[in-house]
Amino acid sequence: MTVEKNTRSLESDIETDFKDKMSYGSYLSLETLLDAQHPVSTPEHHDEMLFIIQHQTSELWLKLMLHELKAVVERLRGDDLRFALKHIARVKHIQRTLTEQWSVLATLTPTEYAEFRGSLGASSGFQSYQYRAVEFVLGNKNAGMIKVFDADPAAQKLLTDLLEMPSLYDEFIRLLARRGFDVPAELVERDVTQAHTFSEPLVQVYKAVYENAAEHWDLYEACEELVDLEENFQLWRFRHMKTVERTIGFKRGTGGSSGVGFLKRALELTFFPELLAVRTEVGAE
Ligand code: HEM
Ligand SMILES: N[C@@H](CC(=O)c1ccccc1NC=O)C(=O)O
Q1: In which residues is heme bound (predicted)?
Q2: Does the annotation list 248 as a binding residue?
Q3: What pLDDT is stored for residue 182 in this prediction?
Q4: Nearest ligand 1 atom, CA 98
Q5: Does residue 155 contact residue 162 with C-beta atoms inside 8 Å?
């Protein structure tokens, strides 16, 4: 059947009765999802909807990212690098989406934002427990970050559990040790509640992998995937910092920090420092 008058006719078998069947909206809990945008500015500022949805979509992607990263940790623990790599590939696409999404918020001018910023009170992305959870899973542990969730026991438990679990990087390092590489015992048995700190012997392990890539192909590939993950994470942080700079300049943050300066310091944090250091070591001078 052709389209007439630029109108597509419904096919006779198209389902239209959802009294007793699961529909699109019920499956996706759209009623809950689309009833969760509550601007607080009075009178309501047009641009607050953008601000809310930008954060909510970010939190949804962070939720999926955490789900995938937890699967990566499990797969590494089970020596299943192939499946770990599959999940990492998905995480990388989520990260790209999250980073590209900054361009939507960048349409908010400093004047527009200033018109409803006061309504946000002391709330801040600093209180995003899912963001902190991703940092913890990747190995950037910081127990001090949990204090801000004193009033949210569920978030506090999630973060405390993750703090006490070996991170994705801990599991990767343990896998390298099981594969027979010369990983120092203190790295395998380290206090996993602390942030990972630079280990020179680990650089030498990576050197062995990179200089014999053909022999250790899956590990070689995994190392490069981890470098991508870290770089993508830093790109998100950079776009956040630049968006903040153009939106509030050098004002202090609503969460109480110095603002842009505080966010710039996050760019100096690293997840997998040895994987960057090995680059200085490989190949000819
Ligand atoms: C105009 C938009 C935004 C501005 C002006 C802004 C500003 C800031 C500032 C100043 C901080 C430092 C903490 C503080 O004192 O408040 C911060 C932290 C943070 N923001 Fe935003 N932000 C914006 C949008 C977003 C969005 C869309 C997200 C997405 C979830 C986000 C997530 C975060 C996170 C996770 C932190 C903690 C970063 C860290 O600990 O290094 N922000 N933000
Ligand atoms: N910290 C921001 C406020 C802000 O951006 C924000 C406020 C409430 C919920 C999430 C936010 N996003 C990131 O920090 C500011 O200082 O303007």
Answers
A1: 240
A2: no
A3: 97
A4: 29
A5: no
Ligand 1 lined by 105 (C-beta under 6 Å): yes
What is the predicted pLDDT for the residue at 56? 98
What is the reported pLDDT for 2? 76
Q: Residue 189 belongs to what domain range?
A: 46-113+128-242+258-264+271-281
Residue 53 in domain: yes
Please count the structural domains in the chain. Answer: 1
d(CA 266, CA 238): 9
Task: Give the CATH number, domain containing residue 79.
Answer: 1.20.58.480
pTM of the model: 0.97
Q: Percentage of the chain with pLDDT > 70? A: 99
Give the N- to C-terminal CA distance of the chain in Å, as an integer. Answer: 69
CA distance 146 to 235: 24
Peptide bond into 43 cis (omega under 30): yes
- Residue 277, classed as helix, strand or coil, is helix
pLDDT given for residue 285 in this prediction: 66
Atom of ligand 1 nearest to the CA of 124: 16
